[in-house]
Amino acid sequence: MTSLVEALRLAAWQEMERDPRVWVLGEDVARGGLFGQYRGFLERFGADRVVSTPISEAVIMGAGLGAALVGTRPIIEMRIFDFVMCAMDELVNQIAKIRYMFGGQARPSVVVRMPHGLWRNSAAQHSQVLEAWFAHLPGVVVVAPSTPADAAGLLVAAIRSDDPVLFFDPKNLFGLEGEVPAAIAPMPFGHARQVRTGDALTIVSWSALMPAVEQAAVTLAARGINAEILDLRCLWPWDEAAVTASARRTGRLLVAHEAVEAGGFGAEIIARIAEHAPGIRVARCGMPRVPLPFSPPLEDAIKVTPAKIVAAAERLLAR
Amino acid sequence: MTSLVEALRLAAWQEMERDPRVWVLGEDVARGGLFGQYRGFLERFGADRVVSTPISEAVIMGAGLGAALVGTRPIIEMRIFDFVMCAMDELVNQIAKIRYMFGGQARPSVVVRMPHGLWRNSAAQHSQVLEAWFAHLPGVVVVAPSTPADAAGLLVAAIRSDDPVLFFDPKNLFGLEGEVPAAIAPMPFGHARQVRTGDALTIVSWSALMPAVEQAAVTLAARGINAEILDLRCLWPWDEAAVTASARRTGRLLVAHEAVEAGGFGAEIIARIAEHAPGIRVARCGMPRVPLPFSPPLEDAIKVTPAKIVAAAERLLAR
Amino acid sequence: MTSNAGQWLALHRSMCRIRAFEETALAAHKAGNIPGPLHVSIGQEGVAAGVCLNLRRDDRITSNHRGHGHALAKGAGVAGMMEELFGRAGGHCGGKGGSMHIADFSVGMLGANGVVAGGIPIAVGAAQGIKLLGQDSIAVCFFGDGAINRGPFLEGLNWAALYRLPVLFVCEDNQVAAFTAARDVTAGPGVVARSEALGVPATTVDGNDVVAVDALAARLAADVRGGAGPRLLHAMTYRHTGHTSTDVAAWRPADEVAAAKQGDPIARLEARLIAEGLASAAELAAVRDAALAEMQAARTAALAAPWPDPATAYTDVLGA
Amino acid sequence: MTSNAGQWLALHRSMCRIRAFEETALAAHKAGNIPGPLHVSIGQEGVAAGVCLNLRRDDRITSNHRGHGHALAKGAGVAGMMEELFGRAGGHCGGKGGSMHIADFSVGMLGANGVVAGGIPIAVGAAQGIKLLGQDSIAVCFFGDGAINRGPFLEGLNWAALYRLPVLFVCEDNQVAAFTAARDVTAGPGVVARSEALGVPATTVDGNDVVAVDALAARLAADVRGGAGPRLLHAMTYRHTGHTSTDVAAWRPADEVAAAKQGDPIARLEARLIAEGLASAAELAAVRDAALAEMQAARTAALAAPWPDPATAYTDVLGA
Ligand SMILES: Cc1ncc(C[n+]2csc(CCOP(=O)(O)OP(=O)(O)O)c2C)c(N)n1
Ligand SMILES: Cc1ncc(C[n+]2csc(CCOP(=O)(O)OP(=O)(O)O)c2C)c(N)n1
Ligand SMILES: [Mg+2]
Ligand SMILES: [Mg+2]
Hints:
The complex is a heterotetramer, with two copies of chain A and two copies of chain C. Chain A is of the alpha/beta class. Chain A has helices spanning 4-18, 41-45, 57-69, 88-101, 131-135, 148-160, 210-222, 240-250, 265-276, 296-302, 306-318; strands at residues 2-3, 22-26, 50-52, 73-77, 111-113, 141-143, 165-167, 177-178, 193-196, 201-205, 227-231, 234-236, 252-260, 281-287.
C-alpha cells in the first residue's frame, strides 16, 4: 500500500528518470516540497532540475511556460492552490492561450500542480476549490484524482502531455493508502472510474470529496438505497458518456463536490444532462457561497459531509 | 439620448459630486480613461481623486481595498477585463474574503470596473468573458448591464454599496444610445428586466449579447415564434424568481451568453431550473471552448450571433 | 538615561507579552487546542515592539502570516486574539480567521495575511485613503524578507513614493523564507538597495536591539507623518523556531541557530536595563511572570469560551 | 571605418524595413484592411535593429504589444507578418493572433504579447530551459518603460540573476506608457538602478544612435552568451506616433515631439554613413525605396490572400 502523496512522488520520480527534459520548479521543492512530494529529488536529480525558487509565483508559472517553449517539460509546483492567484496572467492569458494565439507554433508542455481543497482548518486563503473556473477556460486540461493509482497514472500522463495540464492535488487525501503499480502507466484523460454500481441513483464526484461520497453510499445502502458512484477524475475533458449512460440507467443524478455549489462544475454536468437527457431527475450538493471559515464548527457547518450527501440523495429520490 | 459610456460617465460624476469619499484610480483615468468614461474628471475633481496610476494592476486593486478600509469609496478601473488577471490575489484572496475572514470588521466598499467582452477583433488577451468565475466566488456582487439606464443605475448602486461590486462594463455596447434620467437613482441588484413578453419560450441573457438576443427575437417573431426575453443585469445576486416564473409560463428556457458555453453562468441557471422546476425544456447558446481568435471570419465562426440564437431556439422548440 | 526608563521598560513589557503569548499558543497548539497552522515570531519581538510603540491608535498596520507580535504591540486585545486562535466565538474575527487572519480594526490592526506580500498593496492604499481624507495618521506595513521577491513589493513601493504616501514599510529580515535561506533566493545587494531604487529611502537596523529599532522607528514614523513620503525600515533578526509550529527547521546549521539565540532581543534589553541600573533582575523577572500569567489566563479562558454558533458561518459574506 | 560599412548598412536596411513595414501597415489600417488595434514603433527602430543584428537564429526573443520591429529584425518573414496583420490564412499565426500576437518560432521569435511585462517571465524561462538543455543560445526580452512598474519585472530580474540565466533584458524607454508620461508614474532613479538592485548589471544607451546600440548589444550579448549571467540594456528612444494607430497623442508638447523627431535613428545613421563616405544619399534612398517596395508588395499580396477557413477557428486549442 502506498499513500497518495507517495504515489505522486513516485510518478514524478519515474518521469524524471525517464526523460531528462522533465524538471520541477517551485518553492522549497529542493527540500522535498511542502508535502514531501519531491523528497529525495534534489539528491537524485540535482539543483538544475529541482529548482527551489523565490516566492515569485508569477515567474514560477511564466518561467515554466518559457522553458516549455524551448523544449523542456516543467512541473510547475504552486505549493497551495490559492497562490495561483498570484500567477493568473501567466496561467490564463499566456499558458492557456499561447498555442492557439500563435496558430499552433507553441507547445506549452507544462504541468501545473495545485494542492487544493479543505485541509486542517486552513481558512479562507488556503482552502479554496475553484476547479470549475478552469473547466470554463479554453486551452487547458483539468485533472482532479482521488486515489493513489489514479493520481500517479494521471500525473504521468500530464507530464507526457504537450498540453498545459492543471493538476489538482487533493491535499486532504495525501495520506490515503492504495495500490500503485511498480511501473506507472499514463492514464488517459477524460475517463470516469466506476466506484460502485447501483440502480437507485447515480452520484458523480471527484477529488477530495470521494471518500465522503463512498461513506454516504454505505449509509444509503444500509437504508436499502443502492447508489452508483462515478469518480470523474478529469473535469476537462470529462466523461459525459459515462455520466449520461449511468444517469439514464438509474434515472437520477446527484453531483456532489467540495466546491461552492453555485457555479461549480456540477452546474455544467447537470446542465448537459438536462439539455441532452431530459427527464432524468437531477440535484447538486456543494458548499454554500461562503468563504472557508477557520473555526472547526463553522467549517463543519458549510462543508459537504456524508450526511449532507445522504440527505441530498434522499431528497432526490423523494422527488 | 445618451450613449452607454456617457451614461456611465454621468453616473460616476454624479456620485463623485455627491460624496467626497468617492474617487477613481486606474491607468490613464486622468486623461479620461481608455473609453472617455472619465472625461473631465481630473479638471473637476483634481488629481487626488482622479488618480492616473502606473501599470501596476496588483496595487491598483489592492490599494483600492486599503483605501476602502479607512473609509473611502474607490472606483477601481481595470481598463480591460483581461488585465484583472494581474490582480487576482488582491481581488480573490483579499477583497472577496476580507469581510468574512475578519468576522465583519472590514468594509470592502470598492467597485471594480472591468470593460469586458468581444470588441473590434481584439483577440485572445483582450476579449475574454469570464463573468461566471465571479458568480462562483463568495464575497462579491456581480453586475453586467446592457443599457445606458441600467448601466448608470447599477453603477450608482455599486458605488454606494459597502460590498465589493464587480462591474462588467459591456465595452462593445459603449456606443449604444438610450434615455438616462438627469438624476440617476441607484438600481437595486438582482432584478432582471423583462425586455419582451412572449409565450413560446424564454430567452435569458445579459451584457453585450442582449442586442443579438433582441434581433433573434425579431427573426423568431417573423416566423410566428414569440420569445419572452429577460435581461438578467446581475449575475450575483441573480433573479431566479423572474427566470423561473417566465420559464414556467413558456415551458422552455434558453440561456444565451457571450461567454464560453461550458461552465458559463448559463450552466448555473439551467441547473437551478432543472433541479427546482423539472419538466421545463432547457438549452444554452454560448461560445465553444476556444480562445478568441483575431481574424474576423474566425471570430465570427465562434461568437454567438442572432442566427445561432435563432437556431438554438428552434432546436429547443422542436424538442 | 532615566528619561529612557519608561520607554525601555515599555519595550521590555511589550516584548515579554509577545513572547509569552506565543509560547502559550505553542503549548496550546501542541495540546491540540489550536487548529490550523501556527506561525510564531519568537526571537523577532524587538521589531514589532520597537515599531509599534511609536504608533498612535489611529495609525494602521498590515501584517503577514507571522503577525501575533504586530497585533499585540499595536494594542489588540489578548482575549480576542487567544480566542481567535482557538476558533472561539469571542475571537476578534468570531473564529472565522484564526492565527493567520488576526485583525483588530478597533486598534488599527488591519489584518494578518495568509499571502506573502498580500499586505503591501493594502497598506499603500490605506495610506492613500488617509491622505485623501486629510488625516495625519500613518500606515505601517510589516512583511518578511521573502516578500521582497514578489511583484507587489515593487509595485507598492514605486506607488508609495510616487504619491508621497504616509506609509512606513518594515521588512522583518529573519534571513529565511519557509524552508529556504533568503540568500539562496534573493539576488543583488538586498532590500535597502531595492527600496531606494524605487524611490523609498531605507535604513537597516539590528532588529534584535529593540532600543535601536525604537529610535529608528520614532524618526522614520515622524518623517512619514510629517509628509516626507514613504520610508522603509529594514530590521535584521532571526526566527528561533521553525516556519510553523510543526516545523523543526532541522536543516539550519545548529551553530547558526545557537549564535542567533545569543542575540535574543529580550535578554539583550534586560542586560542593558540592569547594566544601566534602570531595573533589577527581579523586577524584570516579575514582568516576564506577569506576561506569562496574563497569557495563561487568556489560554484558560479561551479553552472555556463558547464555540461560535454554526449559523454564523453564513454571516459576514456580504454586508448589504 | 570601412570595417563597419557592412554592419552599418545592415543596420540601416533593417531599420528601413521596419519603418516601411509599419508605415505600410498604418496605411492599410487606415484603409480598413487591418482589423484590431495596431501599435507601431516608428522612431524606435534603432533598438530592434541594433539588438537583433547581434543575435543568432537559435537565440530567442520575447516582445510586447509594439513588436513588429523586433520580429522583423529577428528575421520573421514579411509575408507571414503582413498576412497576420490582415488576419489571413497565410499569417504566421494563421490569423489567430494579429498584430499584438505576432510570433515566428522558426526564427526564435517567441511572440509579441498583449499584456505589459507578459514576456518577461517567458523570456526568463526560455533562458532557463536553454541552460538546462546545455545550449549556448540566449534569450532577449524586449519591454517598454511601462513594464518596469509591474511585478514581473522584479520577479524576473531577481530570478535571472539568481540562476545566472542567459537572458538580455532590453528596456525600450520611449518615455511614455499609453497616454501617460513615464516620469509621472515611475519613482526613483529609474530602470538602471532597479535592475542593479536586483543583481542585473545595466547600461543606458541612446537608442536612436543605432551604432551605439549595436556596439553595446554586441558586448552584452557576448557577456550573456559567455555565461556572465543576465544583463539589461536601457535604450532611450521616442515614439513618434500615438499609442495606437488611432491615437494622435495630442497631449504631448509639440516642441517635445518635434525635437524628438530630429533624433530619428534612420536619418542620424544616414547622415553618418554619408559623412564617413560609406554610402551616398542616392544609395541610401535606394535602400529605403527597396524596403518600401517590399512592404507594399507584401500589402498587396496580403490583401489578395485567402481568409482562414472558419473551421480552423476550432483547431490549436489543445494539441493532444
Ligand atoms: C504568495 C505566497 N506564496 C507562498 C506562500 C507560502 N508561505 C507562507 S509563509 C512563507 C515564507 C515567507 O517568508 P517571509 O516573508 O520571509 O516571512 P517569515 O516566514 O520568514 O516570517 C511562504 C513561502 C504564501 N503564503 N503566499
Ligand atoms: C498588464 C497590462 N496593463 C495595461 C495594459 C494596457 N496597455 C497596453 S500598452 C500600454 C502602455 C505600455 O507602455 P510601455 O510598456 O512603455 O510600452 P510602449 O507602449 O511605450 O511601447 C498599456 C498601459 C496592458 N496591455 N497590460
Ligand atoms: Mg523571513
Ligand atoms: Mg513606453
